[in-house]
Write a structure and sequence with these properties.
The complex is a heterodimer of chains A (361) and B (219). Chain A is of the alpha/beta class and 361 residues long. Chain A contains 13 helices and 16 strands. Chain B is mainly α and 219 residues long.
Amino acid sequence: MLPFRYGPLNLLFRRVRNIETNKTSQKPIIEIKDLGKTFRPKSGEVKALEGINLSINQGDIYGIIGMSGAGKSTLVRCINLLEKPTSGSVFIDGQDISKITEKELRTVRYSVGMIFQQFNLLMQRTAEKNILFPLEIAGVDKDAAKKRTAELLELVGLPDKAKAYPSQLSGGQKQRIAIARALANNPKILLCDEATSALDPSTTSSILKLLKEINQKLGITIVIITHEMSVVEQICSHVAIIDKSKIAEDGEVEDIFRNPKTEIAKKMIFSEGDQDPVVMGKNTYRIVFDEKSSSDSVMAKMVLETKCLVNIIHADMKNIDGYRFGQMVIQLPEDELSAARAINYLRSHQITVEEVGTHVG
Amino acid sequence: MWDSSMTALIVQGTFETLYMTLMSTLLAYIIGLPMGVLLVTSDSEGIVPMKMTNKVLNIVVNITRSIPFLILLIAVIPLTRMITGTTIGSTATIVPLVIAAAPFIARLVESSIKEVDYGIIEASLSMGASPIQVVTKVMIPEAKPSLIIGAAIATTTILGYSAMAGIVGGGGLGDIAIRFGYYRYETGMMVITVVLLVIIVQLFQEVGMKIAQKQDRRK
């Protein structure tokens, strides 16, 4: 947990960094165009995905978040064509992979690693042999493969577990081996399908840290499928919110968090999925602080200066992509004049204020 | 009634039984293993769906499995003569044994491979594995403990079938049991052969289970 010192400075750096990232990442490494996927089981048909357009730039950590059944797992499987889309196309590094042969597709897959919720390690192979597996598949020569395996075990911090079988490892360790395995062929992209959903919170954050490290050190683009907003907040630079087979909203995590436009986005940000819904009365507003404003005592000052009595309904702190944000749900007095004064005061201090409906979450 | 020729007969019978059983198991696996794999991979949910192949294979397996072994034994006599040049003795018995056991083994293999978690297969596909690689590097190695248990079951079943072949002069312990114990009312001889068969079955089963347990890394 970072303290708020250097708040304004941090924001400044972030701006600068954003400009830089934009400059280096103009070419999307993954581009999804008008993608649709319809399953046709015996009874009727199920539209899993509809009209999906996404563009993921090199070096991004891109979160795809949605409730269960929204279609996010299908979407990630369309990126490496484990699921064949019914319509639309998927471009990896400029190549339309929905139009290539099976053999060419296999070569593309060497450069797209994937990890899973249930780890999916080969149970009859040791950790080391699991990492060796993709290298065997790609036909890498034995000595080089051995060397690479040792490097990867080092990278994920488990060199002493080389000879252990998956059944002898903990969940977090299994996922680390799975990550090492996914990185074996030096992929450009790493797909994570609910990779932390089977792990406890502290293991989750250590795995997320490792992913972030991999992204920064190796420049690998990471796509993260999750149903937990906290995962997106912790490491993602961009996010797409998927709801009922469609993308409801996408963009930089910071922007979406500061100013969610759709109902589903608000729901994801508020409720974290597992809390009780927050029931609100009239005149309810959601306000978002960034690092600068959260270090001033803005709320207290507002109350003193505007003499407007606020009722705090809900408040919490979020760490988004390494930057802290506070969010608060407040109820303003019925008196329109003092409510307007309060809103103006907050807005003039660069705080995002938006009215929320009577029921969120 | 007992003399050294009897002992020689029993020793010879034991070897014939082992020869028939092991040889048939081996040959039946050469046919049954790929069949079992194909049953899984060609399924509509499999890694290389092939609707027609799967259907035909299923029908062939079911038909062969539903013919009683004794009937099959007699029905394939022309084929047996064509392949081995004779219709009596242990080598001749191997032909019907293989025909009867291969589809049975195919089903055993199919169920063992289906036990492999699909997630593991999906993971290997995501790494760019070809169907052949999925079969040889994932399905079979991951199903190994279960396949070994299946092999023990197959071997003991084939052993039971081989004893039945005694009816048509197939050789082995079953043949002795029928000729001496059944036709000549020599109960002692029958008891000895039956006890020997029980011991051999126990041995195969135990050894199979032990190896399977040792190979199982899932626990």
